[in-house]
């Protein structure tokens, strides 16, 4: 029910969970908080966390992005193509919690986004006639500008998520094949890859490959690491079809990889950071202390910087993405929009929100 709050904290019985898979899965059913290590309480939740259901709808209106913009004091997010074609764009007023639908014509089948120059930099996945790329929108003037929509003549597949390296000013983004899988983009011209774009020189580099489907990405607070999620376990059966026949293949990745960032430009020493046991790790972000969070099959999971799972904010269902704002965390759980009060602060809050 809208307005309902959840404060239950469950502490995992590791001794029983490692021997009883049904018991281990039971931690993912009810909204609240699941503590795997006390550092999750001390550093992330604090001692009075609260998860509140802000809005509930009968379609997947709260799916991706999650971008706080200071001039409008609003959080911008996108719907899920699976029940919303074309993808709707929304903003929620941080003060009143009123949700408003938006219309930015240059943003086509949007997915992820980030804050860029106090506006919203959308991943516009495109369609069969509109190329995929990055579109910057000033939500005050409602003016849009396409920053990039091809890699030296080859169209991107369906640009999915994007971040800014605030020390260099360059823009990094992922480009999986989900537009093709969902039937609204033509067959891919590029492998699933990670790119780095310089908005001043207009140059673009491919910086990482070897994914089944690269998806979310984020930098560590010191910009010395880049985390990238591979959601290859989510596949369409028998080709793109009508775009609504996704399923999980547990033999494929639901994995977070981490790279060393060298000179702010190059990625070295790829290794596994964590594997998501429930669903897939989609959107990903860090807090000020370097804890890593990702939207997964039952809520938002949190790992210590060494890759140890320390806790979950449980929504009880797939939560593709989330974002930190000044007051806490917004969680986009498809048909449910949640807000969580907690101790941790996102590593970009001081840059983007204050």
UniProtKB/TrEMBL annotation:
Entries under Pfam families matching the protein: SGL (PF08450)
Domain called SMP-30/Gluconolactonase/LRE-like region: residue spans: 89-233, 242-326
Gene3D superfamilies named in the record: TolB, C-terminal domain (2.120.10.30)
SUPFAM superfamilies hit by this protein: Calcium-dependent phosphotriesterase
Xref: InterPro entries: 6-blade_b-propeller_TolB-like, Oryzine_lactonohydrolase, SGL
Protein name, entry field: SMP-30/Gluconolactonase/LRE-like region domain-containing protein
Record lineage: Eukaryota, Fungi, Dikarya, Ascomycota, Pezizomycotina
